């Protein structure tokens, strides 16, 4: 594990980043949130989280493009309107297959691109914090950020010409460490770590300060017009 103060092995700048954001169909997304949100609000919150995540990512000066891998047409249209490129989840074989598919889509067009996977459930994501993570990651072949719970992963980066090799899902922090990826232990990147799976996670994200889509959706709840 490397910390902020340690010497990096390669300080070459990697140039602009491509981010791959996976998103499950909204009808199935964020199922663990149902007890806190109710069944009607849950898919709308899942979309709001993705909009805030993609919007913050696109605001980072280091980010050249954001590729969203999803089969959800509603989410695809909403995220394309923000400036993301939408790629169908053609493998339909789960999260890591979707990320590998997104990686191929990026590298077909930009073979030497630095690339990172970023979960779509980071509604408090702050561009300045993601920028720090990208800058730090640029020094290593592969690097990751563990989630707020300290068990999973919210971000995994691969430098130019380096395969992403994602091992997301459940206790992925240990798998990413075992795979040789460097854990990013920067302080002050809470917004990059705060994924939202449960009601407690949502409360933590709201306390950090969520983006406008999530704030608006949470405040409005499920309006009569949405039913
Ligand atoms: N394209 C794609 N994205 C996925 C898939 N599975 C999970 N994701 C996305 O991967 C990220 C992390 O997934 P989770 O935190 O487990 O989110 P989730 O699957 O919606 O949550 P739960 O239903 O509560 O398990 C989120 O952005 C999900 O939308 C998949 O099979 N395909
Ligand atoms: C996708 C992951 O976990 P979760 O489903 O708990 O967000 C992960 O952390 O790799």
TrEMBL record:
Reactions performed catalytically: phosphoenolpyruvate + GTP + H(+) = enolpyruvoyl-2-diphospho-5'-guanosine + diphosphate
Documented EC number(s): 2.7.7.105
Pathway: Cofactor biosynthesis; coenzyme F420 biosynthesis
Keyword terms, alphabetized: GTP-binding, Nucleotide-binding, Nucleotidyltransferase, Transferase
KW ATP-binding (keyword) present: no
One of the record's GO molecular function terms: phospholactate guanylyltransferase activity
Highest rank taxon of the organism: Bacteria
Keyword Transferase carried by entry: yes
Chain residues that bind phosphoenolpyruvate: 153, 169, 172
A Pfam cross-reference name: CofC
Job of this protein: Guanylyltransferase that catalyzes the activation of phosphoenolpyruvate (PEP) as enolpyruvoyl-2-diphospho-5'-guanosine, via the condensation of PEP with GTP. It is involved in the biosynthesis of coenzyme F420, a hydride carrier cofactor.
HAMAP family: CofC (MF_02114)
The family this protein is said to belong to: Belongs to the CofC family.
Name this protein carries in UniProt: Phosphoenolpyruvate guanylyltransferase
Organism: Streptomyces poriferorum
């Amino acid at each position: 594990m490397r910390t902020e103060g340690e010497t990096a092995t390669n300080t070459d700048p990697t140039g602009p980043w491509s981010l791959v954001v996976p998103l499950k169909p909204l009808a199935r997304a964020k199922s663990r949130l149902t007890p806190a949100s109710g069944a009607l609000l849950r898919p709308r919150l899942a979309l709001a989280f993705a909009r805030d995540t993609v919007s913050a990512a696109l605001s980072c000066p280091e980010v050249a493009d954001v590729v969203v891998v999803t089969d959800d047409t509603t989410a695809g249209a909403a995220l394309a309107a923000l400036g993301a490129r939408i790629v169908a989840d053609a493998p339909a074989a789960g999260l890591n297959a979707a990320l590998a598919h997104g990686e191929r889509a990026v590298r077909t067009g930009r073979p030497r691109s630095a690339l990172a996977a970023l979960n779509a459930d980071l509604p408090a994501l702050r561009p300045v914090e993601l920028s720090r993570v990208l800058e730090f990651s640029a020094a290593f072949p592969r690097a990751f950020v563990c989630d707020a719970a300290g068990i999973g992963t919210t971000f995994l980066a691969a430098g130019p010409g380096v395969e992403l090799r994602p091992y997301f899902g459940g206790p992925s922090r240990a798998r990413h460490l075992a795979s040789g990826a460097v854990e990013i232990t920067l302080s002050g990147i809470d917004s990059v770590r705060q994924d939202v799976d449960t009601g407690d996670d949502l409360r933590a994200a709201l306390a950090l300060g969520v983006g406008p889509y999530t704030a608006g959706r949470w405040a409005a709840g499920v309006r009569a017009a949405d039913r």
